Automatic annotation (TrEMBL):
One of its GO terms (molecular function) is aspartic-type endopeptidase activity. InterPro entries: Aspartic_peptidase_A1 (IPR001461), Aspartic_peptidase_AS (IPR001969), Aspartic_peptidase_N (IPR012848), Pepsin_A (IPR034162), PEPTIDASE_A1 (IPR033121), Peptidase_aspartic_dom_sf (IPR021109). The active site is at D91, D274. This is pepsin A. The keyword Glycoprotein does not apply. Keywords: Aspartyl protease, Digestion, Disulfide bond, Hydrolase, Protease, Signal, Zymogen. Gene3D superfamilies: 6.10.140.60, Acid Proteases. The keyword RNA-binding does not apply. It comes from Acipenser oxyrinchus oxyrinchus. Its EC number is 3.4.23.1.
Length: 380
């Protein structure tokens, strides 16, 4: 009888852990390169990754997002009854859910998949509007409520944005449709309840956390897990780091070293673990110093290139967080494309560090809302 109770408990627990496959599609950068448009695009749309963490914009209650050309991991969710499917970025650097709608006539809204509220029997409209600032413009729209299904989790009465306008240049070249934000509710535009908060409030997850595994070598295999931690995706122990600000998933970094020498973040700095940023981004001077140490050169458009033949001899870049070293080998921070090899470090005119997909591919990342902490472990 006792074993039956234990087995029942384990089954009940597993039913509240949900895995959503993430797919690695073609990035906007790759599309622009193939069409011979990248150089011209960068001249008029410079890379501005930290705009979505700009406190001035945050004070206006508009939630800023960046025009990140290297974003490529997306998952599929559905909205409405019957369900309408959308490819979304699961973004720990923002808090709103929005998708393109039939109300959008912008150039970027050329994708056939648009949410049509008239085709959903569970949709409920509101008079609220939403505006989300990008580096190249703003997504504006209206807010509505409907059933959102994420990897088997049926999230009832979820508020989300239906786009009416979208910034044309960036979103036209991406493979995903919208954004599902996983940061704290304090930064949600228009005060909309984030998806994961709604899941927690309805008791739809066994633990108030979610975790990311981003595959390093293949198009498939990446996953976001809601409500649990999967030991098959990491080796060794989990190192827990406290969240220092319940806005984004912000932590404190100790330093960045190369060959035992402090090359950046001297004396400590702010860092954000962000699945919605593709690179590791830091202040201009610090990133330039790292690029020099690893042998990368940066052109006038901010693109950093490295010699593909030197990858094997390039040093580790070590991020020390909460007293623990997290090294990034060259295999992690160098992109190898048909056009050549480039560095996975990006610069921005800010004192903030963003540990994006380049870092997360190397370290299984757990976002624990119940204890306001981030767990990092060596990815399997």
């Amino acid at each position: 009888m006792k074993w039956a109770v234990v087995l029942y408990a384990l089954v009940a627990l597993s039913e509240c852990i949900h895995k959503i496959p993430l797919y690695k599609g073609k990035s906007a950068r790759e599309t622009l390169e193939e069409q011979g448009l990248l150089e011209e695009y960068l001249k008029t749309h410079p890379y501005n990754p930290t705009i979505k963490f700009n406190p001035v914009l945050a004070q206006t209650s508009d939630e800023p997002l960046t025009n990140d050309m290297d974003l490529s991991y997306y998952g599929v969710i559905s909205i409405g009854t019957p369900p309408q499917s959308f490819k979304v970025i699961f973004d720990t650097g923002s808090s709103n859910l929005w998708v393109p709608s039939v109300y959008c006539n912008s150039y970027a809204c050329r994708q056939p998949q648009k949410f049509n509220p008239s085709q959903s029997s569970t949709y409920r409209s509101t008079s609220q509007t939403v505006s989300i600032q990008y580096g190249t413009g703003a997504m504006t729209g209206i807010l509505g409520y409907d059933t959102v299904t994420v990897g088997g989790i049926v999230d009832n009465n979820q508020i989300f944005g239906l786009s009416e306008t979208e910034p044309g240049s960036f979103l036209y070249y991406v493979v995903f449709d919208g954004i599902l934000g996983l940061a704290y509710p304090s930064i949600s535009s228009s005060g909309a309840t984030p998806v994961f908060d709604n899941m927690m409030n309805q008791g739809l997850v066994s633990q108030d956390l979610f975790s990311f595994y981003l595959s390093r070598d293949s198009q498939a295999g990446s996953v976001v897990t809601f409500g649990g931690i999967d030991p098959s995706y990491y080796t060794g122990q989990i190192n827990w780091v406290p969240v220092t600000s319940q806005t984004y998933w912000e932590i404190t970094m100790d330093q960045v070293t190369v060959n035992g020498q402090t090359v950046a973040c001297s004396g400590g700095c702010r860092g954000i673990i962000d699945t919605g940023t593709s690179l590791v981004v830091g202040p201009t001077n610090d990133i330039n110093n790292i690029q020099a140490w690893v042998g990368a050169t940066t052109n006038q458009n901010g693109q950093s290139t490295v010699n593909c033949n030197s990858i094997g001899s390039m040093p580790e870049v070590v991020f020390t967080i909460n007293g623990i070293n997290f090294p990034l080998p060259s295999s992690a921070y160098v992109f190898q494309r048909m056009s050549g090899c480039s560095s996975g470090f990006g610069q921005d005119y800010n004192d903030l560090w963003i540990l994006g997909d380049v870092f997360i591919r190397e370290y299984y990342s757990i976002f624990d809302r119940g204890n306001n902490r981030v767990g990092l472990a060596q990815a399997a």
